[in-house]
Amino acid sequence: MISFFIFLVLFSLVSGDENARNFSDRASLQTFVSRVTSDRGNVLENWHNSSQVHFCNWTGITCNENRDSVLELDLSGASLHGTISPVISKLTRLTVLDLSRNFFEGGIPKEIGYLLELKQLSLSSNLLRGRIPFELGFLRGLQYLDMGSNKLEGEIPPGLFCNGSSSLEYVDSSNNSISGNIPLNEECDAKELRFLLVWSNKLTGQIPRALANSTKLKWLDFESNFFEGELPFEIVKNLSNLQFVYLSYNRFSGPLERFLSGLTNSPHLQELELAGNILSGKIPDTIGNLSQSLVQLHLDENRISGGIPPNISNLLNLTLLNLSSNSLNGTIPKELCQMARLERLYISDNMLSGEIPLCFGNVSKLGLLDLSKNRLSNTIPNTFSSLSQLRKLLLHNNKLNGTIPTSLAQCVNLESLDLSHNQISGSIPTEFARLSTLKLYLNISHNHLTGMLPLKLSKMNMVIAMDLSSNNFSGMIPTQLGSCIALELLNISGNALEGQLPSSVGKLPFLEILDVSRNRLSGKIPESFQTSSTLKHLNFSFNNFSGNISFPFLQIDSFLGNPELCSSSIPGMSICKNPRKKHLIPLPVLLTLLAMATLLMFLVPFVFKSKSKRKFVKMFSRNSVYEEDDERKEQNYPKISYQELMEATGGFNSSSLIGSGRFGQVYKGILKDNTKIAVKVISYVKAEEITASFNKECEVLKNIRHRNLIRIITICSRSDFKALVLPLMQNGSLEDHLYPCDRVIRVDLVQLVRILSDVAEGLAYLHHYAPVKVAHCDLKPSNILLDDDMHAVLSDFGIAKLVKEEVEKIPTAGGPPSISSTDGLLCGSIGYIPPEYGMGRRASSQGDVYSFGVLLLEMVTRKRPTDVFCYENSSLHDWVKTQYPHKLEPIIKETLKNYPTITTNATSCNGNLLHDIVLELIKLGLICTQNNPSTRPTMLDVAHEIATWKEYLIS
């Protein structure tokens, strides 16, 4: 290891005498910014006008009192591109360097290691590559180091932890490709370390024993690496301050008992994750002695055997327990029902037998219960009807018998139900078929169900996937199934259904997968299935279909066992015979027809003259700019040509640019009739992604009408140009009013509550009243526009979800393709994204509620959710929660100061009312941003609550 003395020599050689430097802090910053560009043009505007503005007033700069040295450089989340210049080392007084959440490429300059006064270094969420410079080990005063979510590789330099007198409190190198061991030995001084996050790398070896000396450790995250050996008992027994321990998805082996006994010395432990290892043996009774603060426990995907110890119920504050994918046996202990706060219970994929305890109906907060893939028998308990919060009930692949309980219809929040691969008999109860709240998944396949498909199944109009296959259903397929407009997958194969296939099913707007094979269906396959633009996978095999078909994207495998089918476009199928035959028409009949035709030729021009003329003109007056003309006529969109848009915006001149984003730019303009418009032009960078976003936004906007949602004037779409024409909002976005350039807020508290009420009303409409339910997915101040009267409207639906809830990936044995739990996209903007999206859940209305809560807290506190808070807090929600309830007074006073209310007599004479309203807003923000989606309120409840406060303020 290079001594600190040698380092000083090297540093003097590299940097020279400070008095001899040619670079002032201003010159260094100018050199730095010369390598940088931004997607947000105005972010570095005062940097480029450097001759007019003192560098201490530049964006992201904090100077000392003498205003001659830069102390802090914070350009986090500024959409910066380029490389980090080594000249940054010339800012010798720098204590904070935060370039996180940008698009910086290249390596980390080793010269950063010469910033001897640096206390905080954050380079996370960029595109940085290469090794971690060993020179960073020279930063003896560094307290906060975050390099997470880059593309770093190689080993961790030893000096990072062992530099003689480390003051490191926070280290995050997660989500990279770093390899090797953690270079921490007994000689290292890491006693101040509180947070150590190295998850999702390629680290190997064992957890270093020297961590036992880091007695202040609160957060230990080694998840998703290649660590091995036994769980570190000797380490954790000394760490009494531990709160979060994540060791999942490594190669840890051996029994649990010693490790858990060591953790009993950690009274503040909140989350323990050991999933995806090679742990064996039984769950020891000592598990009941863990901290009463424990809220999450993950032991899934191991080799744990034996029974579930009843005294696990001592963990009374547990909200999540996951024991799935092990080799547990015996029965489910009734003591689990004593865990009154339990919200999610996973015991699937084990060898448990016996009955499902009736007492589960007493666990009132239970939102997810997964007992699938076991050997459970007897009937499904009626007591599930008491679970008002139950959203997912997964009982598939067991030996359950009896009938489907009618009482399940009382589970008013149930979203996913899987009873497949059991021995359930009888028919589908009519009451259960009316379960209109079911939103995601219904699977009752591979049972012994009989009878006809109830017409009331059409009430399940929000179900995404419905699998009724491999039963004994008979009768006809109800035409009413065409009312299940959210369906993406429908499988009714392997039954005794007969009659014709309803054309209404082929018209379902989102249907992608259909399987009606192995039934007794007959007649022609309706044209709606052949012309559907969404269907991708179909199976009509082994029925009695007949006639000519044309499915250019299907093979013969989809039509086996239908001898009366023919096609000239599907290889391997019999070619249809020409049915035309010559027929002689008798002369008297032919003369009569000719006479009638002649008479009609004289009559038609008089009877239909005006109508035909209108129709003819309409048919031949289409503008070539509009490729979706039929759709536009339905909406009565005005025709605005590309040339008119060019003239209105000055040729899309930069002076007309009012905003830009991921998919393009927004220009303001004025039409010839003096209509002020905003033109959202879609740029062609990623053609497929752009088209999908444009089509999505068009689809959303054409289906919704609400005063608090942006109104579309027209759509301009041709092969080389796509744009949305929207009304211009004169007061800009909420972002402009929360963070004005002159730092003077011109919004008062009444307007603040009105804006929140407008946003809540708009979201409530999208979630509950729109013709097709929508999740916005990207709620933030810049997407909230304000009209002339300061009424708020939601905009930017480019990543909205028309079918709004998450679908869990539920594997099936045989049958159709399974449903994926994620589409590979993380919807939203950093700071506003709910935590469940990061775990693969699809966008949902609960996610919008979370984003609204963040927005609410941001508006009240005027702190961006991307701001850096204290080390102990990871989000705006967490920071506010630490102040609640006894430390809120300074926040409330600051809010009342920021939003001085001067309207209405009621508000001016009642300061207590204003104080209470702000307090209630903070409470609501905290409730909306709870980590558990099932505990968040709906936007209907939120809108009603805020409307009440608005009435108080303006009354």
What does it look like?
- This protein has 955 residues and is an alpha/beta fold.
- Among the domains are: 1-163, Alpha-Beta Horseshoe (Leucine-rich repeat, LRR (right-handed beta-alpha superhelix)), CATH 3.80.10; 445-570, Leucine-rich repeat, LRR (right-handed beta-alpha superhelix) (Alpha-Beta Horseshoe); 631-728, 2-Layer Sandwich (Phosphorylase Kinase, domain 1), CATH 3.30.200; 740-954, Transferase(Phosphotransferase) domain 1 (Transferase(Phosphotransferase), domain 1), CATH 1.10.510.10.
- The protein contains 21 helices and 50 strands.
- β47 (714-718) and β48 (721-727) form a beta hairpin.
- α15 (749-768) runs antiparallel to α21 (939-954).
- The radius of gyration is 33 Å and the shape is globular.
- The model is unreliable at 1-22, 580-584, 602-636, 685-690, 803-825, 868-873 and 902-909 (pLDDT under 50).
Key phrases:
955 residues, Phosphorylase Kinase, domain 1, Leucine-rich repeat, LRR (right-handed beta-alpha superhelix), disordered N terminus, 21 helices, alpha/beta, 50 strands
